[in-house]
Amino acid sequence: MNPDLFLVILIVIGLVGRSPIISTAASLLLILKLTHLERYFPAVERRGLELGLLFLTIAVLVPFATGRISVKEITSMFTSLPGILAIIGGMLATYMNGKGLDLLKMDPQLIIGLVIGSIIGIVMLRGIPVGPLMAAGITAFLLKVLNWIWSR
């Protein structure tokens, strides 16, 4: 399939599915392509995830910078059940991200399925894409569960 046509299809899917993130991302890539700035694709591919995570982290940390989160609220993270579960959730997420990275190193073509699954999740489930590593981590977990079931 022609890459330009594929990007246009993604733009339409994003518009129909009311997902401005998909539409905007595909539009920006199409603009880079049509203005013959494809030489920046490797840099976008290499650093785009880091920049996205940087801005996501900045957005999450704004309440700390503005003082909307007090020292009392921070200490409650270590003394309340929701806080302790949030810490455990963060630990599990980073662990799964690591397993996802290992899986993608062993089987890099899985990224195609992760992207398609993310698009479906955005459009049909109104999800928010936070990164291929978490998707790969969940995939690695599901593969382990299936291997465990099949080996019984």
UniProtKB/TrEMBL annotation:
Mode of membrane association: Multi-pass membrane protein
Statement: the UniProt record of this protein carries the keyword Cytoplasm: no
Record's keyword terms, sorted: Cell membrane, Membrane, Transmembrane, Transmembrane helix
Presence of the UniProt keyword Transmembrane in the record: yes
Locations listed in the record: Cell membrane
Transmembrane segments: 6-32, 53-71, 77-98, 110-128
Main location: membrane
GO cellular component, as recorded: plasma membrane
Family membership: Belongs to the UPF0756 family.
PANTHER family in the cross-refs: UPF0756 MEMBRANE PROTEIN YEAL
Name by which UniProt lists this protein: UPF0756 membrane protein CLV97_12040
